[in-house]
Amino acid sequence: MRIPEKWSLGMVLAVAAVLLAGCARNPEVGKKKYLASGDSYFQEGKYSEAAIQYQNAIQIDSRFAEAHYRLAQCFLKQADWNHAHQELVRTVELEPSDWKAQLDLGNLFLAAGKLPEARERAETVLKGDPQNAQAQSLLSRVDAAQGNLPKALLEAQQAVQLDPNRTASYLNLATMQEKNKDMAAAEQNYKKALSLDPKSMREVLALGDFYMRQKRWADAEKQYQSAITLEPQSPMPRAILAKLYLMEGQKDMAEQVLRDAKSAIKENSTGYRMLGEFYAEQGQRDKAIAEFASLHAEHPKDIAVSKTYAKLLIDSNQLDEATRINDSLLKDSPRDTDALVLKGAIQNRRGQSSDAARILERAVKDAPSDATAHYQLGVAYAALSNLTQAQSEWQQAVKLEPRMLEAQRLLAKLALRKGDLQLLGDIGQQLISLEPRSPEGYLFHATALFNRGDLAGTEADLKHAMEVAPENAAAYTGMGDMRRAQKRYDEAEKFYADALRREPSSSQALSGLVNIDLVRKQPAKALRRVQDQIALVPGDSGFYTLLGQVEVQNHDLERAEKAFEKAVELDKNNVPAFLFLASTQVARGSADQAISEYERALQDNPRAVRIYVSLGSLLETQEKWQRAEDLYKKALEIQPDYAPAANNLAYLMLEHDGDVNVALSLAETARKKLPDIPNIADTLAWAYYKQGVYKAAIPLLQEAVKGNPDNPTYHYHLGMAFAKTNNYAMAKKQLEYTLQISPKDSHADEIKRVLAQTQQNN
User: For residue 303, what are the contacts with CB-CB under 8 A and spacing of at least 6?
Assistant: First the structure.
């Protein structure tokens, strides 16, 4: 109908308002209108827009099963499995005989490994529709997943019989036959599916994938090229063809395919991003950054390009540019989880761990299934020395994304630090399963077995690592460590030398060789060995640290000090070198210089708890108790369960009229972390003594004396505890021995007084 020219705009709007009001008064019309609008968006691939329209329909009628089902399809297209599950459950609640929804729900359960639930859906459909081939195929896949392949094969054949023209049934049957090692029958059914629908890319790719698994490269290539011809604007077949070339070792061909994709699929973000993503996956970071810089300039509104580009910049420490791009993303969408995670990653890189933790906690709350958010939150917690929460976040990350290798690596390092051999072994086994051609999993697993004393298992793992990565030095170093533990020094020396040839900067391999020289009483040879390696790799801070240690063994403290000074000059974050340097200066009688060195080290390493404790211990020798106490407290702020700091602070408090209850708590923390250290057993015992719990103190003190029988303080404490429990004979024995090994002991006057009392009581 034409609008008369004399109608004003106001009149047109008024009529429109009346028409809309009419729709609003008729819910059936309104909800169907939204449904139709959603369908239109869905067909165009605009799933977010379609979802909004379906939700509008549901707002009008919350029991509109068809809208719930269509909304579930939007979520499935967007890989939003949780919301898809919710909408499918609601659909079948409203319409139990909606077999499509029941089957979609069953497939979701199968993908999630919830096999009984998947079976229940398949059986529900077959009960209501015994001729449903899709349900029969689902049942087949469930049985295959449960290991019942004969039954799965039978059900797959039944699905074909139920609907001989359904291509998916032939594909499922072919899959089961392939699992059953019947390759000829599998190929026949892959081809049968394709013959039924020769222009379907799914069937073409399925046959190509079968050929690729059989390493029939030429046949696979032919199928993938055919898929590209069928759908030249689809990125999928081009990506798979590139993967095929990579598997054949034809990296240049793979790159060319993706270059062609970028030219051919100019309007598809997935298509034009593939080349840059290929560079990133191949470790060609500079090429990847250049490619995404170009894409970002060409497609400034492409959010996927911006996010990937920002991540690459973060990984290469180009944080200012990454921040600029990510701030723009957050300006447009302040609650974008990916952008929040990128911001947290930038803050982690900048050492702003507290800020990172706050923003990443928000991201994890908004997107609990985001593995990267959990990973970065773990990084922030680790930097804040909250290792328990860091471990929890990394474990959640790998649960959500098992192939997140960096999270697996950090968990392994944490397990090593904590001495958790079970965790380390489990991670190693997972990595072996995920990446059997990578040495990492074998090395972690070997380390766990070595520390458990399983040398046969260790050797098997290390040999596997050598087989898959012959040039990886770590496996040879590990074999050297094992042979050295077995005192098979000649073999160990050979393995360490092999490691150094592969990785001339390996401090661990060089350290192994030096240790063998020192065991053989050949310090001069050890010195020459380190000097020769420094000549080969002159800028290695670790080598100078090792040189200083050898000089200490040779009793040349002056040269040792110079070596440690060079080590910290090369790497101001080499904490062990700072500690060795300061201890050498103390040994040379330069305690004040050592204090200055520790303070300089703290400026560059403000979270290095070992430096705080070492400086505190040195200040204790100068009777600067308050300053030492402050340093121990600072260490515990950074790492609340750091046993040396907790132990030293507890003992200071016990000796200088501090809160005994607080001291006892600190001593218990230290004992829990390091249960086999005599010094820590003594501190906890002395805390019990100060509380008047003398009987609890005695076994701990006996343990300390057994661990270090020449320590006069332990004997003194044990003697005092025996005296308090009226065991005067044992008290006399311990206190007299204290004076025997330490005639000028600081407690000599008190010891003599208690000895006099024991004499009277006897």
Answer: 329
Question: Is 731 in contact with 722 (CB distance < 8 Å)?
Answer: yes
d(CA 469, CA 426): 21
Distance CA 146, CA 118 (A): 11
pLDDT of residue 405: 86
Dist CA 452 CA 310 (whole Å): 43
Domain extent at residue 659: 606-686
Q: Which helix (H) or strand (E) holds 259?
A: helix 251-264
* R_g of the chain computed on alpha carbons: 35
Query: Chain centroid to CA 175: how far?
Result: 34
pLDDT of residue 762: 65
**Confidence band of 64 (pLDDT split at 50, 70, 90):** very high
The CA–CA distances, whole Å, from 254 to 227, 262, 290 equal 16, 13, 19
Q: How far apart are CA 372 and CA 364, in angstroms?
A: 9
Helix (H) or strand (E) holding 398: helix 387-400
At 725 the pLDDT is 94
Q: Give the per-residue pLDDT at 25.
A: 54
DSSP state, 537? S
Distance of CA 132 to the CA centre of its chain: 44
* Confidence band, pLDDT 50/70/90 cuts, at residue 6: very low
**Amino acid sitting at position 497:** A
What whole-number distance in Å separates Cα of residue 147 and Cα of residue 131? 25
Which residues neighbour 489 within 8 Å (Cβ) at sequence distance 6 or greater? 483, 516, 519, 520
Nearest to 682 by CA among 724, 642, 638, 712: 712
CA atoms of 360 and 350, how far apart (whole Å): 15
Chain centroid to Cα 681, Å, comes to: 35
| Stretch 494-504: mean pLDDT | 96
Tally of domains within the chain: 1
Q: For 416-439, what is the HEC assignment?
A: HHHCCHHHHHHHHHHHHHHCCCCC
Count the Cβ atoms, other than its own, within 10 Å of residue 57: 25
Give CA–CA dist 682/661, Å, rounded. 16
Q: SS3 for 434-448, per residue? A: HCCCCCHHHHHHHHH
- Amino acid identity of residue 195, one-letter, is S
Q: Contact at 8 Å (CB) between 392 and 408? A: no
Q: Is residue 234 a part of any domain in this protein?
A: no
Neighbours of 317 (CB within 10 A): 10
Strand spans (E) along 13-78: none
Interatomic CA distance for residues 222 and 259, integer angstroms: 19
Q: Is residue 654 part of a domain?
A: yes
Q: Which residue has the higher pLDDT, 639 or 293?
A: 293
Tokens 């297209």 identify what position?
Answer: 77
Answer whether 377's CB lies under 8 Å from 357's CB: yes
Residue 613 lies in a domain: yes
Task: Give the up-direction half-sphere exposure of residue 686: CA atoms within 13 A in the CB hemisphere.
Answer: 26
**Of 281, 214, 204, residue with least CA distance to 242:** 281
Instruction: For residue 624, give the CATH number of its domain.
Output: 1.25.40.10
**Which residue, among 74, 17, 68, 72, has the nearest Cα to 48 in the 3D structure?**
74
Closest by CA to 394, choosing from 418, 427, 359, 421, is 427
Residue 403 within any structural domain of the chain: no
pLDDT tens digits, 603-619: 989 989 999 999 999 99
